[in-house]
Specification:
- This protein is an alpha/beta fold.
- The chain has eleven helices and ten strands.
- The strands form two sheets. An eight-stranded parallel β-sheet has the order 9-8-7-6-5-4-3-10, with helices on one face.
- It has a single domain, classed as Alpha-Beta Barrel (TIM Barrel).
């Protein structure tokens, strides 16, 4: 396993982060078997992955419970456990968002489910237009000061909002966002025109979610297919990737994969690992075989010409609607 530091911090993380959204029973494509989830987590740690990412809202806390149970037998000090806050955790007032009350309430629930005294990386899952960012930052700073949280991060937002948060943190001497979690992969490159330049300039770590485009870049779909199983059968966002432009990207991925005796998933992940701004793509394997395949991306070296071939079919364009994902 390769390791790097998260942004400008001294926190050492594996070059792949294990995404834990698949662990739970909220959607039919998730892993409802806790034992199977534990096997994947245990094997990932055995292979050197020390960075795990979940969220309170994943299967309404079930994912955090699974992660907490799985890490009991591992060295907590070597692990970097990340979770998130923002999504609805019940009905009624104060059950969603980034108010001070919601953040302080939810961190306690996450700590209990994860079975830990502290969270290494606590991230705001989305921007909350109904709460002043100063209130959110003050609450997060309090968690850092009291030791319940070690670092804070953010996910999926327009660059101007993220820049405002960094400015307000500096202005008020609050703990600063140390990483950004954007959607970023070969067919979703809009962040190259949005938040990634900010991250590069400000020393903010980048841990992309959906590095395989919801499974599109694994090559399991074909132009002629009418997906009736897996994530694409129920996830409209995955099906939205079935465009002529994206199929041309996948054609290039498949060609290079054949040339290198690799899989499309490995080539797609290798492309991300070659990006200087990227610290640790978040992979979400649903089986041990998928996990092993993903880690094979470390063996795939891409030339500048091959990177150009992969990127040529598509020009990144930022869309306001992306922030609503």
């Amino acid at each position: 396993m390769e390791y790097t530091t998260l942004g400008d911090t001294g926190l050492e993380v594996s070059r792949f982060c294990l995404g834990c959204m698949n662990f739970g029973s909220d959607r039919e494509w998730m892993i409802a078997d806790d034992e199977q989830s534990h096997e994947i987590i245990d094997r990932a740690i055995e292979l050197g992955i020390n960075f795990l990412d979940t969220a309170n809202v994943y299967s309404h806390g079930e994912s955090e419970d699974i992660v907490g149970d799985a890490i009991e037998d591992h060295d907590r000090e070597e692990l970097v456990i990340a979770t998130k806050v923002y999504g609805a955790m019940g009905e009624g007032p104060n059950k969603q968002g980034l108010s001070r009350k919601h953040i302080l309430d939810q961190v306690e629930g996450s700590l209990e489910r994860l079975g830990t005294d502290y969270i290494d990386l606590y991230q705001i899952h989305r921007w909350d237009d109904s709460t002043p960012i100063e209130e959110t930052l003050h609450a997060l700073d309090h968690l850092v000061e009291t030791g319940k949280v070690r670092y804070i991060g953010a996910s999926t937002m327009p660059a101007w909002k993220f820049t405002k948060a960094l400015y307000d943190s500096d202005l008020h001497d609050y703990a600063r966002f140390t990483c950004m979690q954007p959607q970023y992969n070969l067919v979703d490159r809009q962040e190259e025109e949005n938040v990634l330049p900010v991250c590069a300039d400000e020393g903010v770590g980048v841990i992309p979610w959906s590095p395989l485009g919801g499974g599109f870049l694994t090559g399991k779909y074909d132009r002629e297919d009418d997906p009736d199983e897996g994530r694409a059968a129920t996830d409209e966002h995955t099906r939205e990737r079935f465009t002529d432009e994206n199929w041309r990207v996948l054609d290039a991925v498949r060609e290079i994969a054949d040339e290198k005796d690799a899989t499309p998933a490995q080539v797609s992940l290798a492309w991300l690992l070659h990006k200087d701004v990227v610290d640790a793509p978040i992979v979400g394997p649903r089986s041990l075989d998928h996990l092993e395949e993903n880690l094979g991306a470390f063996e795939v070296s891409l030339t500048d010409n091959e990177v150009q071939r992969l990127e040529a079919p598509k020009n990144p364009v930022w869309s306001r609607s992306i922030a609503d994902l």
